[in-house]
Amino acid sequence: MDLVLKLFNGGAGSLASYLAAHVLLCLLPAFFIAGAMTALIPKASITHWLGRHAPVYVSYPAAALAGSLIAVCSCTIVPLFAGVYRKGAGIGPAITFLFFAPAGNIMALAYTGNILGAEFAIARLILCLIFGIGIGLLMATLFWKDDLTHDAQADALFAEKASVSGPALGVLLSLVALLIAGTLKLWPLTADLISFKVPLFWPQAWQDTLFDWVPYDASKGEEGVSFQGSVLIALLLMIAATAKRGLDNITEGANNWTWVALGLTASTLLIASMRLTPEPGTLAFTFTGRVFGVALTMLSVGYFARKLPAEDWQGWLWEAWRFVKQIFVVLVVGVFIVGMVRQVIQPEWIESLAGSNTVIANAIAVGFGVFMYFPTLVEVPVARMFLDLGMHPGPLLAYLMADPELSLQSMLMVAAVIGRKKTAAYVGLVASFSIVAGLLFGAWVDGTGWLTLGAGMAASLAITAAIYQLIRYQRKQTAS
Amino acid sequence: MLNIKILGSGCANCKKLEAVARQATQNLNIQAEFEKITDMGKMMTYDILATPALVINEKVVSSGKIPTVADIQGWISTAQ
């Protein structure tokens, strides 16, 4: 019974820290951004550059751009991947797109930066970009024979040109500004500007009760539920209830519940950016620079959103709500389970397996990512747990790169498009490059000099280029 | 009879599209044969970039978004 209570508290404590203000300021805007990208960026605006006649230096970067801006969920990624492969520039850019989308989309990057720190997010972005293009190129050279058989009628798919409308761009940029305003830990956002106290007797008592219910251990990374945290949780529950009524049928038009849900969301963001501190007999409200930043950027979003045609903003809200339904519940459950598992795993196990930046440690981390399936975004809290338990950042990045790419479900779908042999080659390449990426990042964290790092990076790129040339040479040999 | 195909891999969007399409046929009191296509290979034979997609009598009328009931009713009427 004691163990059950300990597990439950571990789960609850972990969940509480994930529903804390700073995470909400990242996740809530991220869902809206993902929805906006899916609904407001016409696929044709980028896939146009992925046609058969696109030169290599256009189609590969375009594929990476498509991966980060167009696709967040596998139901968009896989059909687009199939389309680019069968009817576009072929397997290379298609693979780059497939690789970059789960790892390089803005939701994943924002959440990684929020929970693990900016270095991880930046490393994830840069290494995924470089290695994504590398893997695409290698796959293209390995399987060049199949690329020769293309449909002639395929060009129609890529002939369409489109651009992002003015208001849509305004909405997107304002949302990104909102995300930055909400999460950047920089002055003047962190400065305390206005502070006033409201005499209320119950906040202090309520906070004491909360700390009683969910005892927290700062050394284990648990934050406990503060008064402000409980207010935010209550708001989230209200948003869930009203959003269900207001957004489930938004494609038919908005109703009153829609505006209530949106209003509650805006209030949640504002309350998350201020500080509520209970003191004996009063409640202190502190407005930081962040409150004004968040308020201004939200007004900007509203300003541009009003200029969007009904079909566009309704589509945007529908997609955002769809992502929330798909991801948030699973994320909450996942975080709770991670919190429970955390109580059981001993740091010594993790440290002995992956505590230092060795090839074996990175390989183990990648293997774990391949064989353990976690839904989108859940790999981030799992990574946090490992980091707290003593995993070295190098293998951790290797895990972060391999896990979203290689879920069994998406691999099955990919195999349906390109066949099992190519899928196996892809899995092998992703695993190898993730290990290399982990080694490089781990070396950087360990303080290896830039010269050594640069040499290591150059070495791996040189090997990649050499393999690429070797395959091309062999191809020429067989052709003649 | 009217043939309506829903193309999608099974996520919330395609379910919604099917519900909306069924509502449209109900409103117009029309009999239609509904087919759900989740196989990637079959989906690729239709020129679409994104799911969910709606195909009425082998013609792709919408892809990548959820149309309104009124929109679908319009397409059905034209297809008759």
UniProtKB/TrEMBL annotation, chain B:
Alphabetical list of InterPro entries matching this protein: Thioredoxin-like_fold, Thioredoxin-like_sf, THIRX-like_proc
Gene3D superfamilies: Glutaredoxin
Active site residues per record: C11 (nucleophile), C14 (nucleophile)
Disulphide bonds in the chain: C11-C14
UniProt keyword Disulfide bond present: yes
Pfam families reported for this sequence: Thioredoxin_3
Domain Thioredoxin-like fold, residue spans: 3-76
Protein name (record): Thioredoxin-like fold domain-containing protein
Lineage: Bacteria, Pseudomonadati, Pseudomonadota, Gammaproteobacteria, Pseudomonadales
